[in-house]
Amino acid sequence: MQKLGGAVILMKENNIKYLLGEPLKEVKPLPPYDEQVCEFLADLSKRLLKDKKVTQYPDIVSFAFFCRKANIYKLKKEFEDGKTRIGRGVVFHIAPSNVPVNCLFTYVFGLISGNANVVRVSSKNFVQVEIVCDILRKMFEEEKYEKIYRMTAFVSYEKSTEVNDMFSSLADVRVIWGGDTTISNIRRSSLPSRAIEITFADRYSLGIINPRRILEASESEIRRLAEHFYNDTYLMDQNACSTPHLLYWISDEPSCLKSGKERFWQAVYNVAKKYNLEDIKVSDKYTLLCKYAIDLKGIKTIQKYENLLYVVTLMQLPEDISLLRGKFGLFFQYDITSLDELSDHITKKIQTCVYYGINPFELRNIITQKSLQGIDRIVPIGSSLDIGVIWDGYDIVEHLSRVISIVS
Fold it and tell me: Interhelix angle for 35-50 vs 102-112, to 10°?
């Protein structure tokens, strides 16, 4: 078999680089969780976890664990509902530039749904993406993965309406990950009349902590909690849509609130000492803090743990809490006495709520009882970046496949 999977192909007429695969010629959709796809992902997982370079990148490790055989077959079992499904055809994915491995996850979502996939990756050079692509190139040289190879194209190109038009015209589904501006720009390229679109727009995330549980926790548990919070926030410089920026502290005991916050933030600071805080991050974060100090009403205190961690305590919240966005270790906190107090600020923009020391089912009940339009995910601190087939309220595999109904 003669293929071009081991090299980068450059389509000069449009300056399109094919980092993986080649232009799709023949599309043969598969049923979701096709056996060969499942085995391919299990093999990819094994190869990634054996690669010494991978251990340096927790996000690749998480991706590899998602692809492991046990997880894929678990998802398959959960998905099976007795209906006959098949992939829709071609999925054109526009990956974001703020989360390196997102392009890999969206590809896998399209693949397990039974589709051929064109994935536009960010023009930024992410080491994580190159490491995984190197392994995929080697796998695609093997005869047994020819079918998967023919369903795969990873492309890179500068912003171009012409190229977007071309790939959109081929798509049965378009999946856009990005801010509102990105989505608006991509939508200038029309889709075929039967095609559908899924957008993962700019979102905002927050957290809820019970300070009583902080005070009751052992030293080892607090260290672990701080590590988990660090992974949710610092690892992506607070750029991910699921990263919490605002923490609600729920208690009616002032002394408990004070002591719980102090213990938590001190633990976060101790963990954050390993963060690579470059000079440009220091200046950007301090400039942002000064801007909030001038423009934001209701600031009670500002705590600085050297340059690694800034905590802004608020006495009142703005009408739109999604304006409270930190980066590089800048967070906001606000006290509440009941989960009911959240409802005034939960809008469509709110995606993830991380929690510690509360009953997540109580929060779920408030969302449903009060008909709130926000909060799609309720996860423990440490799990905010764990992407899955349910995301932003979508069952992705269900959306990327079609149902064949039979009436007899």
Answer: 150
pLDDT of residue 5: 44
For residue 14, what are its two tokens?
């449009």
Q: Which two tokens stand for residue 2?
A: 């003669």
Q: CA of 313: how far to CAs of 228, 299, 317, 328, in Å?
A: 22, 6, 10, 17
- Can you tell me the mean pLDDT for 323-345? 95
Least Cα distance to 356 among 213, 257, 232 occurs for 213
Q: Which residue has the tokens 């709130």?
A: 372
CA distance 341 to 318: 14
Q: What's the confidence (pLDDT) of residue 9?
A: 53
β-strands 16-21, 84-87 pairing? unpaired
Q: What is the pLDDT of residues 30-55, one digit of tens each?
A: 999 999 999 999 999 999 999 999 98
Give Cβ neighbours of residue 124 (< 8 Å, ≥ 6 apart): 97
Higher-pLDDT residue of 21 and 32 is 32
Cβ–Cβ < 8 Å for 94, 176: yes
pLDDT at 86 over 60: yes
Do the Cβ atoms of 398 and 405 come closer than 8 Å? no
For 172-225, how does the pLDDT look when each residue is reduced to its tens digit (9 = 90+)? 999 999 888 899 999 999 999 999 999 998 899 999 999 999 999 999 999 999
C-alpha count within 13 angstroms, C-beta hemisphere, residue 315: 5
